[in-house]
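Entry 14. Ran structure prediction on the chain below.
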Amino acid sequence: MTETLAPTNPENPAIRPAELAAYLAARMCHDFISPASAIVSGLDLLEDPTAQDMREDAMSLIGASARKLADLLSFTRVAFGASASAETFDARELEKLAQGVFAHMRAELDWQVETPAVNKPVARTLLNLAQMAGAALPTGGVARVRAVEEGASVAVAVEAVGPRARLRPEVLAGLRGEGPGEGLHGHWVQARYVHLFVGDAGGRVFADVSEEKVTLAATIPA
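Output, structure tokens:
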């Protein structure tokens, strides 16, 4: 199966800004609640007088969960937020953010971004497409991220290669600018958000799905 995504179809249903914001907030809360709950569980074990033999396990759980939560927060601040007033981002710092998220995924990240610094829309595109590529590899594989300047634009290409590589229907719908349908809103809203900010920047986003490979791409004015 091959899918090529184009700008929003005028017939696609519009989504109110407040509704999109609610879906994004729900998505972020979903990402944060798991490590936060694990930290609380670890603290409960430390306070339980009958579980003192599990103290080392509890500390390991707290440490690993705290790192995951910090990695997700740092990533989300740039991928979804405004990241203060920054308008340009060092590609090496973006790689660190992406590697932080991939440290908690089964997939591996291969970062091959040639441009040393990118603008905010490109930075958000790199991070979001990288995370989406990692999610497209539920049993592992490699997500290869590339970006090169081509004239007045930056071309971003992210390939997810591995067994059972797939892109959820709601993700394809979001990248097209369509509504969530009956799919999972958390996966859809990230794709719809990418479609919106890439379009606002004057760019386009594409996807190609084949056997054991998912390719996500975008062209964005530099």
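Residues 6-11 have pLDDT under 50 and may be disordered. Will compare against last week's run tomorrow.
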